[in-house]
Structure formats: C-alpha cells, structure tokens
Write a structure and sequence with these properties.
This protein is α+β, with helices and mostly antiparallel strands. About 50% of the residues lie in helices and about 20% in strands. Strands 1-3-2 form a three-stranded mixed β-sheet, sandwiched between helices. A hairpin with a 6-residue loop joins strand 2 and strand 3. The two termini are about 20 Å apart. The relative contact order is 0.17.
C-alpha cells in the first residue's frame, strides 16, 4: 500500500465545532473526532485527498495521553495519510496495526 504515488493531499486544521459539523454531514456521526480523512482519488495507485484535523481534539488528546502537542499532531497527520493509502481502523486488529505504523513513522520524524 505504501508504494502509491502522491498526487496531492490537503491538511485543514479546524475547531471541534467545525469537525463536528463535517462528521454529522458526511458520516452522520454526532460526536467529536480528531480527524476526518476524505479520499478523493479515482485510481487506487494514487494518493489524493483532504484531511481535517481538530486542533481542539489534538490538544485534549495530548493532555490525556501525556504526549507532546507536536508529536500528537504528527501522529494524527500520519493516521490520516495511512487512511489515504488504504489502511482501515474499524477492528481492534486494524487499530493495533495502524498504531504500530503510526509509531514507526513517528520514529522517522
């Protein structure tokens, strides 16, 4: 999956209020989230998408996890990029795999 070619991706930093509105509109979820990722590619070999990140959630998560704010922001960005290249986090196994990949890529920063 990680051999896909990058076309473009956009990262938008926003508030809880804005990401909640997007979460309701596009996923019909009525709760805050740290990230929403929209894959816009029409070819599975390419990466093209838009990522929305709630700065409020990143700050709250960093406090709860006792993590540096910048590190938590990088983790969330990596998480979104993993979604764009095809990884899912719907099951416990998938979540665990994504967390391992997030940590692997965080170590490279």
């Amino acid at each position: 999956m990680e051999s896909k070619k990058l076309i473009s991706f956009e990262i938008n930093l926003c508030s809880d209020k804005y990401i909640l509105k997007l979460n309701n509109k596009f996923l019909r979820h009525d709760y805050f989230t740290d990230i929403l990722t929209f894959d816009l590619s029409d070819n599975k070999d390419y990466i093209e998408g838009v990522i929305y990140i709630s700065v409020d959630r990143v700050l709250e998560n960093s406090k709860q996890l006792n993590e540096n704010k910048e590190t938590e922001l990088y983790r969330v960005i990596i998480h979104g990029l993993l979604h764009l290249i095809g990884y899912c986090d719907e099951t416990k196994k998938q979540k665990s795999n994504m967390r391992k990949l997030e940590n692997r890529y965080l170590d490279l920063i």
